[in-house]
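Reader question, answered in our methods column.
A reader sent in the components of a multi-part assembly and asked whether the whole thing could be modeled at once rather than chain by chain. We filled in our standard form and ran it. Here is what they sent:
COMPLEX SIZE: two components
ENTRIES:
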Amino acid sequence: MAGTDRRKAYAADHVDKGAPAVVLVRTQLGENIGAAARAMLNCGLADLRLVQPRDGWPNVKALGAASGADAVLSSTRVYGTVEEAVADLNVVHATTARPRELLKPELAPRESVAAMREAAQGGARLGLLFGPEKAGLKNEELVLADAIVRIPLNPAFASLNLAQAVLIMAYEWRLASGPLEDIEEPPPPTGSARPATKEEILHFFEHLEGALDERSFYPTPEMRPKMVQNMRTMFERISLTRQDVQTLRGVVRALTGEPPRRGPPPGSAD
Amino acid sequence: MAGTDRRKAYAADHVDKGAPAVVLVRTQLGENIGAAARAMLNCGLADLRLVQPRDGWPNVKALGAASGADAVLSSTRVYGTVEEAVADLNVVHATTARPRELLKPELAPRESVAAMREAAQGGARLGLLFGPEKAGLKNEELVLADAIVRIPLNPAFASLNLAQAVLIMAYEWRLASGPLEDIEEPPPPTGSARPATKEEILHFFEHLEGALDERSFYPTPEMRPKMVQNMRTMFERISLTRQDVQTLRGVVRALTGEPPRRGPPPGSAD
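And here is the structure of the entire assembly that came back:
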């Protein structure tokens, strides 16, 4: 018993705090959530986020499949939307087996991990999105991602179990980051040059789209979702910094004739 | 039904005949055998061999967990001993989480796969040994292996699910061996998805900056050059398509209340 407690305390310590959060969206099977948690902790990842898990949370089947990955399950958080789940993150990659026409970079797992590690060195907080077992992520959710991860598999049998997909990404992260013993805390992001959070970017989108709504930008209401998605995809491609978002919001305010925002002028302080 | 049959025939064709056989020794759970079969076929491996599976063979639970990996399950063979299972193979690596004192080379998964591929080029037939869920392989079984594979994991939580271990090895094999079929080149972008010309981008910049000039966007004239440069740099990072530029110009027109541009609606012609 004392041995188990010690092992759990050790496991909680041996967590890679700079590693990506794993965001499981509308997962159907508790077993898959548990197996994903186990695979995460196998590789030192511990930040698990659930968006609308079908059978609610907590889930006994998840607990069973997690095989003691308590350091993950005890801190798992549940969200109502993908937007909320990624709000505090800066760089998010989404796995999908289906080809989409979103004009997003498509990366192999190893490339994705390399790009995320580079972003983390600039202070970015990271996330990995995984859709439901059958349906995958919706386009409006994929739009939130900075890149799409495609796992190179047998084209004739490419449907990977959810926890297996989580494992491949976590394993690649572990390999690229070196042994857990060597991990150092990432420096806290500071300043206006830090990557924008997804929340900051979403506020900009809502600001812009609201202003366009008021000005009858969309030829027909039916065209609005597609046009909004195209605009969001375009801006997500930039890897916006906090300063970029401030600038863009200032541009929208200026163009629409809104009064400038109260507070210090852009770029004068953080 | 015809579609499913076609998919299965295609899957059977898309098998990597030089890939390692997977030998599962005294596996307890049928689910793990099925999940291993699925992971194998995900990566193009199809030669599954079972040594004394606890619940016999065939196993309905394995069938369920395999999610249609019939190309693997239909050819799975059962053996009484590890010696018999590996008799026709030339190079066998064994995975284990436990440190042993067997004076065998210990390889990471990627090193193991590289060594096996090299052996295969000399004509060797390959195999990977996986022990039972809890106990691992016996020493007299490990002795049959040419090398021990150690998957680098969280030292505080290193117990990997059996099918997950199979997946990591199969995935590394797939990566090292290249895609099962040549990936088709995406067609060159044409029309509105083609990259914008520098001229189109400059016209957008001038349009935006002119609109901002008219609306006193810049706090002081001295700040204008730096702010313009920052905005241009930001948009240059997007790799704008022609459609992006049209969208952005439409956005500026809408926000400033300019009348929509004359001409065909966006996207109707190139």
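What stands out: Chain B touches chain A through 68 residues (CB under 8 Å). The longest strand of chain B covers residues 21-25.
Send us your own complexes using the same form.
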